[in-house]
Amino acid sequence: MKVVLIVIGLAIAATIATYARYQSLNPCHWMERDLVGQTGLPPLVVRARIHAGFLIDGITDPGPYDCIMAWWEFRAEGLPGESGAGLGPPQGNSGQRGVAPFDPH
Questions:
Q1: What is the full DSSP assignment across the chain?
Q2: What is the pLDDT of residues 43-67, one digit of tens each?
Q3: pTM surpassing 0.85?
Q4: Residue 98 — left, alpha, or beta (φ > 0 → left; ψ -120 to 50 → alpha)?
């Protein structure tokens, strides 16, 4: 009985901590808030990029399970834009070697 009470207490504490950090219990909002904080992009842009990522994976209407799996993957692997592509702001001409800048004259 004591173990059950400890597990219930831990679950309640985790729920309160999650709500205190994200002001939501929706895992889709967790990922959005984390990405806005890390990239500095407007929330609308982050939402569109998250939705595009789900569409690429063939998920048209992500549910809580899809969002929590994507959030866990994001937390474990970090921001996809760290490798030069993905959710971060554009990094200039970093991926195009040997390409001269456009000169209209």
A1: -HHHHHHHHHHHHHHHHHHHHHS-S-HHHHHHHHHHHHH---HHHHHHHHHHHHHHTT-SS--HHHHHHHHHHHHHH--GGGGTSSSSPP-SSTT-TTPPPP---
A2: 999 999 999 989 998 988 888 899 8
A3: no
A4: left
